[in-house]
Prior knowledge:
Distance between the termini: 15 Å
Structural class: mainly alpha
Largest sheet: 2 strands, antiparallel
Shape: globular
Number of domains: 2
Helix content: over 70%
CATH class of the largest domain: Mainly Alpha
Strand content: under 5%
Radius of gyration: 23 Å
Number of strands: 6
Amino acid sequence: MEQQPAVETGIVADENQTCLSFFQKFTYALGQxxxxxxxxxxxxxxxxxxxxxxxxxxxxxxxxxxxxxxMGGLIPRLLEAFAEPTVGHLSDKYSFRWGRxxxxxxxxxxxxxxxxxxxxxxxxxxxxxxxxxxxxxxEFTPNFVWLLVTHTGFWIMYTxxxxxxxxxxxxxxxxxxxxxxxSEYMAYSDVLGSVLGAVGVGAMITVFASGLTLGPIxxxxxxxxTGLLMGIFFAFTFYLSIWKIKEKPAAEIKQVHFGFLESxxxxxxxxxxxxxxxxxxxxxxxxxxIMASLPFLVDKILGLDPGYAGYLQGVVLIGAALMFPFVSRxxxxxxxxxxxxxxxxxFGFCLLLLALTRHFPFLGYPISWIASLFGAxxxxxxxxxxxxxxxxxxxxFAVSVIFVxxxxxxxDVIDWDEKLTGYRREAMxxxxxxxxxxxxxxxxxxxxPLMNDWWGATPxxxxxxxxxxxxxxxxxxxxxxxxxxxxxxx
Length: 490
């Protein structure tokens, strides 16, 4: 395809021009804290709250059955995937006094805050409650209905707030270098939100294990307290993010006249979108395969405590954060497409190295040699773990690129669409990306257990876990092959 200059896509390439103050960039990026933290609260702790806690007698407290928990987790995510393009279309098409995006954040945030709290207040806190009827083995109880409604409400409102928030980025600055800088700040918030979700929420659940009394209000357990405090935090950061940001006046934005289905079709007529969204889905699927495989690699293959998988994740996040400024400068000088392609190839290569952890952990031997200089010896297990740490630190560059550049690349896609259609459809594109990438993400949770079942997940038969890593590498290489055809070189 013939390549067009960046200026024709609506991007201003002058590196010296800005239109946002540091405070505006910083406060807008803070919203990303809750973009990362809010799903971490639900995704990490909801299953444990409903099916994994200990009762007073020491037995496992099951507020819903395992089958009901599976359906209560799956159905809301599927509905959310279809909600994303719907919210995107409505946000693009209709403008209000405060703009197209801000009203969704202003009015949606209180509902997101509400659902993040009430999801931890089921009607029966001692068991599943009375079974009203069963469908396909799933028992419909008051707690299951509560879980289904509140969990769906959470993800629908998450979409209603987050999609318009992310869609503000192309509108608040037309300058390429400034978009990359804002995205860098958002990436720092993204990492911090992930760390808070992994460490901070767990600490709060421990600290408030006996609950909390607020005047006449009694919160019985730490999850109720955490849900309340996190809900308040979500509201604070989302409102702060739009406090000093101004949308384009409605008079400057051409009204979108597409219907919903036509909007979907027009998205795929944009030559930049299919290549971008395929690469994005490949990245999401590959990363989720890795995250699902790490506990098996640590626990079942190396024989270490599964908590060590968290250390490996921490290595990636810290390494990625350290590389944010380097990635920003590299993208400004070499172009986003070049850096993005390089990162996918590098990520795939590192995953193949990770698959060598069990049989040929060659990167762990230098660590073992250094340890021997101080009189310490390392078993083969810990040499393998050291190999994994080094490999995942090497992965940090690719993860940093994903954090920093994925949003600016999507912004360029939206700019190209404006050139083709005359409309600004940021939210629709965020929604279409979610519609495609979230089911792709779900496929990861079929790949890992199938591989483990077919080829094993034990020290003597580790090939299922290792094969999952090879599949993740293949998916990443597929993303690279697709993104090579992305038409914007800048």
